[in-house]
Amino acid sequence: MVKNAPKSEVRSGAGRKPLSRSLRMYQHIAVAFVVITFLLLLCVLYLSVSRATIRVVADPKVIDVEARIDVVKDSPVESQVQGVVAETVIEKSRVFTLPSEGAKPVEGKASGYVTLINESAKEQPLVATTRLISQEGILFRLQNAVTVPAGGQVEAFVKADSAGRAGEIGASKFTIPGLNATLQTQIYGVSVAGMTGGVQYVRALSQADIDNAVDVLAGEILAEAKQTLSANADRNVLDGESYSLTTVSQSTDAAVGAEVGSFTLTLKQKVAAVYYPKVQVQNTAERLLSEQVPDGFQVSLVNRQTSRTEVEEIDIKNSTAGITVYLDGLSMISEDAQTLDKDRFVGRAPHEVITLLQASEAIQDVSVSFTPFWLKRVPTLQDHIKIIIEEPKQ
Predict the structure, then answer these.
(1) How many structural domains comprise the chain?
(2) Are residues 234 and 161 in the same domain?
(3) How many whole angstroms from its chain centre is CA 175?
(4) Are 147 and 124 part of one and the same domain?
């Protein structure tokens, strides 16, 4: 039976030899090498892709600066700019009608302003009480003496000769009957605004009435001064301006408490102007503002729209002035702040990082995220830690 067995069965197991001890050792070493290499690859992969992102919402703080900057005629040094200093004195008078609220109606003489025009080649003096007749036939009189320059014009205050509403005329043309017929065609008056005051509402004049009138007249003086003084400066270069008004004299024709329907205010003011390059002053102020920011913080906002400049000193003789610039803004924590030193976060859990950062008054909120998402702690390599600083949402 054995002799008839298949050849394949006879040869099964033939040629097998047990591995030698040295081959088994090499096999174990190879397997261990593969495992170690795999683990090292995993470690390298972990170190290369592990990331921590710390998002910080800053809590901005208000910063401000009140800086003095000198304006000089030439050769400016630090905290100085080159500019122009000018000054003028302007005097104005105006009749102000009191509001009718709380007042009683009293018949009065209408009044207003007339522009006297002289088209002749010779100046024409006119005394107070000079008659002017409107095209409606209403008689008015000059209240002050004036001289109308040849080929020029002058504004004069007139008052109706008779009381009542008849004097309340609109814009009109006036002849001067005291002049000869030829001069009447060359020297005449025109009014743009109507005459008022034919019926006045009388009440006690208050200090508030006078103060309001001063504000109005001072505004007119400033507007006139701006036109006059700006001619001294190249406004294309010196585009910044600041003015200072000083009252030289002030008077009214009625005292506080007097029962009147209108009053005349005369105001004389000295207006000083400083013209300077706006960008240079702004840059100097912003530099000084940034110097107010402590280490570890940065300027996040400059409120240029709320910036204001005021004249402090004027030296007309030496063409110098001192101006004070007020500027404010916001500062917030920066990446180089000690609070955000990455060494503080290495190896920490998210809640530990959040607790550390929320203790700072400069930080409003904190969040921590990881890549890959299953990480539980901040990587030990600083370049794998990213800190993002955000401004709070409005």
Answers:
(1) 3
(2) no
(3) 51
(4) yes
Predicted model pTM? 0.58
- My answer on whether 341 and 364 are in the same domain is yes
Which of 145, 143, 192 minimizes the C-alpha distance to 169? Answer: 192
Question: Is 133 part of any domain?
Answer: yes
Dig out the tokens for 337 from the structure: 């702040």
Joined together, the tokens standing for residue 271 give 């207006």
Domain holding 156, by residue range, is: 109-197
> For 262, which DSSP code?
E
As a whole number, the mean pLDDT across the chain is 88
Residues 185 and 207 in one domain: no
Closest CA to 248 of 95, 71, 97, 87: 87
Q: Find out whether the peptide bond into 372 is cis, omega within 30 degrees of 0.
A: yes
Please report whether residue 327 resides in a domain: no
Q: Are 245 and 220 in contact (CB under 8 A)?
A: no
Please write the tens of the pLDDT for every residue from 114-136.
999 999 999 999 999 999 999 99
How many other CB atoms are there within 10 angstroms of residue 298's CB atom? 15
Res. 389 pLDDT band, cuts 50 70 90: very high
Mean per-residue pLDDT for 261-288?
92
Distances (CA, A) of 196 to 67, 193, 210, 216, 283: 49, 9, 19, 19, 52
